[in-house]
Automatic annotation (TrEMBL):
Domain IspG TIM-barrel: 9-279
Cofactor binding, per record: Binds 1 [4Fe-4S] cluster.
Keyword set includes Oxidoreductase: yes
Pathway, per record: Isoprenoid biosynthesis; isopentenyl diphosphate biosynthesis via DXP pathway; isopentenyl diphosphate from 1-deoxy-D-xylulose 5-phosphate: step 5/6
Organism name: Methylomarinum roseum
Sites where the protein binds [4Fe-4S] cluster: C298, C301, C344, E351
GO molecular function, one term: iron ion binding
EC nos: 1.17.7.3
Record InterPro entries: Dihydropteroate_synth-like_sf, IspG_bac, IspG_bac-typ, IspG_C, IspG_TIM, NO2/SO3_Rdtase_4Fe4S_sf
Protein name, per record: 4-hydroxy-3-methylbut-2-en-1-yl diphosphate synthase (flavodoxin)
Single Gene Ontology BP annotation: terpenoid biosynthetic process
Taxonomic lineage from the root: Bacteria, Pseudomonadati, Pseudomonadota, Gammaproteobacteria, Methylococcales
Domain of life per record: Bacteria
Record key words, sorted: 4Fe-4S, Iron, Iron-sulfur, Isoprene biosynthesis, Metal-binding, Oxidoreductase
Length: 406
């Protein structure tokens, strides 16, 4: 199956990051620190940026958080991290932006939820106020509709209209339409209030995979705004990874989506950066972008009763990812390299030959030798207790000799 051409959308500039308009799909993430805790928030933004997040969103929910944002931006700049910060506003964003103009200036984008910008008669004036701040400070806006906080006025209106039809639709279909309409109508109002189309990104997030696919297919047909993809709450561990990958892979395969986030619930003790790694690996395995050399490793079987090859694959993968912040500015194209770490003679030599550099370790009962292949040719056979260390040296030498300095 071939990948559909990317749908042409309006390009939006967020800081110095291009979103939409044919630009590469952007990876973003969000902090889970208290934004008012400047030190912790700066540290987590740095970690997310180092992992590869190209946009980082922070909650701006209190006066303390709003006051902290300019200093967070200042400290990041001093440390050499230019990653754009996105301000996530709910309920009181119009008040915070009015009272703390330095917060508005420090942010690279505002995120507004139409369902949480105001209730009843306050909804439109407060939404307009947020958009006017975006215009004043020349900031793009993501209008992010969430199924869990859907603008009830839109849903109620559609339900009333549906009841009058000869063949009324089921509630799920009405809800999907309400989510899409909330985004489109809010974007239209934003443009009426003076915000250019090149300043608008839309998202329509829910947690159900099939519903999310249907919603984004619909909104993609009805507009050319840049689109941000993601589930509202993907879940924890493998469930979160599978849910996000299943939904986003289908949409991106169809050419839909300009920026993505994998909204994982962090497992206790797990780094926030995991969601960034998953997003990158999803884009790389589908062939959209390359971020770090890929390690190809066999799953193991009765022929590989030792865990030696698994530990070597893990070590090599960690080493390659750790080095990428340095290598990406030093070696052109290294992120497209493939490294094979195989566990026995069945597929080991073949997979190693197909990779840029690969090693075929001995399986149970096999001769304790490990041939290494570079560009399909066996270059050396490693033996002894230092195979892992010697192979890592060979990987380093391969990179130095095959990827030109930028």
């Amino acid at each position: 199956m071939s990948i559909s051409p990317r749908k042409q959308t309006q390009q939006v500039l967020v800081g110095d990051v291009k979103v939409g308009g044919g630009a590469p799909i952007v990876v973003q993430s969000m902090t889970n620190t208290d934004t008012a805790d400047i030190a912790s928030t700066v540290q987590q933004i740095i970690e997310l940026s180092m992992a590869g997040s190209e946009l980082v969103r922070v909650t701006v929910n209190t006066e303390e958080a709003a006051k902290a944002v300019p200093e967070i931006r200042n400290q990041l700049d001093q440390k050499g991290f230019s990653v754009p910060i996105v301000g996530d506003f709910h309920f009181n964003g119009h008040k915070l932006l009015e009272k703390y103009p330095a917060c508005a200036e420090a942010l690279s984008k505002f995120r507004i939820n139409p369902g949480n910008v105001g209730r009843g008669k306050n909804r439109d004036p407060q939404f307009q106020q947020m958009i006017e701040f975006a215009c004043r400070y020349d900031k793009p806006v993501r209008i992010g509709v969430n199924g869990g906080s859907l603008d009830q006025s839109v849903l109620t209106r559609l339900l009333d209209e549906n009841r009058k039809k000869a063949n009324p639709q089921e509630l799920p279909a009405i809800t999907r339409e309400a989510i899409v309409l909330s985004a489109l109508e809010s974007a239209a109002k934003a443009q009426e209030y003076g915000l250019g189309k090149d300043k608008i990104i839309l998202s329509c997030k829910i947690s159900n995979v099939q519903e999310l696919i249907s919603i984004y297919q619909d909104i993609s047909e009805r507009c050319d705004y840049a689109l941000h993809l993601g589930l509202t709450e993907a879940g924890m561990g493998s469930k979160g990874i599978v849910s996000s990958s299943a939904a986003l892979a289908v949409l991106m395969q169809q050419g839909i989506g300009d920026t993505i986030r994998i909204s994982l619930t962090p497992e206790p003790g797990t780094a926030r950066t995991k969601e960034v790694v998953v997003a990158q690996e999803l884009l790389q395995t589908m062939g959209f972008r390359s971020f770090t050399p890929l390690v190809i490793a066999c799953p193991g079987c009765g022929r590989t009763t030792s865990d030696y090859f698994q530990r070597l694959a893990q070590d090599i993968q960690a080493y390659l990812r750790d080095q990428m912040p340095i290598w990406k500015n030093k070696y052109h194209g290294v992120e497209e390299m493939e490294v094979a770490v195989m566990g026995c003679v069945v597929n080991g030599p073949g997979e190693s030959k197909n990779a840029n550099i690969g090693i075929s370790l001995p399986g149970t009962g096999e001769s304790p030798v490990a041939p290494v292949y570079e560009d399909g040719v066996k270059t050396v056979t490693l033996k002894g207790d230092k195979i892992a260390e010697e192979f890592q040296v060979l990987v380093e030498k391969y990179i130095e000799s095959h990827y030109s300095a930028q």
